[in-house]
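Quick one - first record:
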Amino acid sequence: MSEKISTKTFFINYTIFAGIILGVLGILIYTVFASRVAWNNNLKYSIEKVLEENEPGSWSVGSPIEINNPLTLRSGCYGARNRKTGDMHYAFITRIPTVYGPMGAVFTCTLEGEVKFEGYSSLHGRILKQISQSKYDTRLQYFSERIPGIIGIEKGEKND
C-alpha cells in the first residue's frame, strides 16, 4: 500500500532539508574565509623571516596583493618597502621543488620588474647555504623570469 503525503508535510520536510544544506554551506564558507586570513598571515610571516635573515632591519612587509593567476593557489604576493632606500617592492613567495622537497622560495620584485631571489622560507643554517649556492638553478631562473608576468607588471615600465 502506498502512503500519500500531504503537500503541507512535503514542504515542511523540504524546508527542513534545505535549511540543513544552507547551514552546512554557511559553515563551509565561513571556514574558507577564516582560513584565508590565517594563510595570508603565515605567508607574510615566512616572507618577513627570510628578508630579516638576509638583511636585518631592512624590510617592512605590508598587506597581501591580489593576483589573478592560477599560481595563486600555491603562491602569495605582498607589498614590501625597503627601509634603507624607501623603495617599494613586491615580495613574492611560491613553492618550488628542491632536493629536500617542495620549499617556499621568496623573491623580491621591483616596480620595474627586476626580480631577486632572497631565500627559502623553511631552510636555515648549513642546509640553506648548501642549497642557495646553486645560483644557476633553472627552477629559480624560471620563476625569476615568470614573476613579473604573474604579478601583472610590464617589465621595464614603472608600475604602481
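second record:
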Amino acid sequence: MISFDMDGGTVDILPVVNGLMPEAEKVRSAYGKYEAYGASMGIEGLEAIRMREQMGMGGMEVSELDIVYSKRMSEFGEVVAPSPAFCEIVDLCAKDGRQVIPLDMSDYEYDTAYIECVSAIEFTAEHRLAKKGVRRRFAATTPEDLAREWDRMVSRVRGYRELSRRREKHIAKEIAETMRFRGTLLAIVEVERADGVAALLEEEYGALQ
C-alpha cells in the first residue's frame, strides 16, 4: 500500500498484479474502511465487469502481448480475464450499493491517446515484441517484479512508454479531483503504474507520504 495525506484526507494506492487470481484477496482485505473506491480502468471497462455475467466476456479482445504476458505470469499462479482484483472491487462495491470511480481514460480518450502516441511502425512491431517476451529470460522472482520487468521491456518502445505516462497522468489527476470531495479513497492500480502515479501525486498535487 502507498499512502498519502492529500487535501485533508487520505489516499491509499493498492498496487495489484493484473490477471493473477490471488490478487482478489488483497482487495478483499483492504475493503470496507473508505469513503470512496477507485480503479485504474475506464468507465466502459468497469461497466463491462459489473455486467459480465449478463454480457459474457468470451468476446473480449486480447492482444498478442497480453497472451504472452498471461503465459509468463501463469508461472506464479492462475491468470484469468477480466482481472480478479478489478472484478473484486466492482463486486464488493456493487454489493454495498457503491460505484467504483473510473480513474483511467474512457475508451474514446484511450483510443485517441493511442493514435497520438503509437506510430504505425511501432504498432506493426508488436508481434516482434511479443516474440521477445516469449524468449526473454526474466530475472523476476515475484509476480510484482515480473509485471514491472515486463513493463520495462514494453516501454523500450517510445510510443508505448508515452502512452503509459499519459495513463499515469490521467489516473493521478482523477485521484486529485476525487480528493477534493472525499475524505478517504482506496485506489486499485496495477503495480507497474502505481509508482508513477504516486510520484505524480507528490510532484504535481502536493500529496505527502
